[in-house]
Design goal:
13-stranded mixed beta sheet, Carbonic Anhydrase II, alpha+beta
Length: about 525
Amino acid sequence: MNFVLITLALTCFVCVHSASWSYDDPNKWGDNFADCKGNRQSPVDINPTTAMFNDGLVKFVLNGFDSKMQYNITNNGHTIQLNPFKHTMTASGGGLPTTYKVVQFHFHWSDSDTKKGSEHTIKSSSYPLEIHVVQMKAAYSDIKEALKHSDGLAVFGFFFKEGASNKGLAEFASRMPEDPKSSSLVMLSLMDIVGMADMTKYYRYEGSLTTPPCSQAVIWTVFHDVLTASKSEIAAFRKIKDQHNKTISNYRPVQPLNGRKIYTSVRSSEEHDCKHWTYDDIINWNHCYSECQGKVQSPINILEGAANTDTKIGPIHFIAYDKVQEFYMKNNGHSLQLNFKRANSSIMDGNLPNVYKAEQFHFHWDAKDTLSGSEHQINGKSFPLEMHIVHVNAKYHDIGDSLNDTNGLAVLSFLFKISHEPNLEMNKFLKYINGTEDFKEKDDISLNLAKLIDLNNLGPYYRYKGSLTTPPCSEAVIWSVYKSPIKISIDQLKVFWSLKSENKHLHNFRPTQKMNGRLVYLARL
C-alpha cells in the first residue's frame, strides 16, 4: 500500500498544477512558482571540455533495474510517465549521498523538430528524446518531503538519437495513451530501455525539477552515452496530446549555471582516448577538445587595413596595476606562468561588459633561436614573444566558472620586439631562471605590472571575440591586442628559449585561426 501512495503522491503533485502552467511560455513559470526563478535551475547546457573530473563519481550500485515489473503508463497532459507498481528499484554509489528509490520515469521531446526535444543539451546540441528516471531518498515516504531538501531527489537523464530499435520503448511505444488523463499497462525492465548505456560515464551537477514548481532539490546525473530508438518509436511521442488536444513539445529551455560546476566521472584523456595535449600534436586538439574546431578561435592574424573603428571602445582602465604585487611563478609544461597571489588588480571600461579581475599572466614563444613565437600576428608578421594577462569576469569565482560565458574572460595581449635595452621589470623574475634549464617554480616574486607592460605608453589596441589559445579552447574570451610592441633584449628572450618540458625546449604558439566572418576593431585612444 505504501508503494501505491508514493506513486500517487508524485503523479498528483504534477497534476495539481497542470492547469496553471504550460510549455507555451516557460519564461513565465516564475510568475506563479518562485523556485522557477532560482539560481540552480535545470536543465542546463553541458560543455564536455570544461566539465571537471571528480574521482568521487564512482560506479553506481543498482538494484532491481533489470527486473521485469508492471508499470502504469499515463499521459498527464505534460508528458508520458511510467509509474512502477512496486518501488523496489534503488540506486546508491555514484557519488550519491545515500540510497535512492525509483518512483517514476518520463520523457521529453518536440512534437515537430527532429533536431530538438531533449531538455539538457551538449555544447548547445539537442537530441530528439530524453528520459528522466526520478528517484527520491529511500528514507522518505512522501515526494513532498523530498522536495524540501536540496538532495531529496536524484534524477538520471539519458539522451536518445534515431537508430536501432530500443527494446524497452518497443514494448510500449504503440500503447502510449495519446489523449490526456488516459493510461495503460506494460510489463518491462528499466534496463530494457537504458541498459545499453555505459553507466560509469556521466556528468553530475546540482539542479531542479524541469517543470513547476521547479523545486531546487535534484542531484542530476546525465549519462555520456546516447541511446538509440527507431524512427517510429520516437515518432510515437509526437502523437501525444495535451488537455487542449494539441500535440506536446515538452522541453524547457536550458537555464544559466550561475556559477555552478558540472563534473564528470571520466578524465578527458580517457573519454577521448587521447594523450595529454602538447604543442607537438596541435592537429589532434580537435579530436580531444571539440571546441578547438569552433568558429571563434584564437589567435588570429590582424589586418590593420581591415580593422573597424568603434567609438564605444575607448581606453581600458587599469586598477592597481601600478602597485607592487606578489606572484607565484611556474613552468607548467606549456608556458612560463605567473599567478597573482592576491586578486588586487583588475580592468574595466574599454566597452567591457563588467569589471574583470586579473588571475595570471603567461608567455608564448618559438623554439630556440627564432624570432617568430607570438601567437597573434599583425599583417602576417609574427613577434619574438607574446604575453597574455588573463582576467576573469568579476561575477565568477574563477576561470573554470567563466568558460561557459562568451564574456567570461578578458585577455590582454602584449607583443614584444627586440631592443638593445632590456625590460628591467622582467629581470625581476627571469633572474630565477637564467642558467637553469630545469626550472620548475619560484614563490614570492614581487613585480610592478605597470612597469612590465610600460603602461603609460601603451597606445591603441585591437578588439575581437575569440577563445583560449590552448585546450579546451573555450570560446569565452574578449581579446584586446595592443598594437605597439614592448621592448625586450635578446638576452632576456634567450631565457625563455632555455626553458624545457619533458627534456625538450618549449615552443608554445598556436597557429592563427580562421576569422569566420568576425570583425576586428581598433580602439582609438
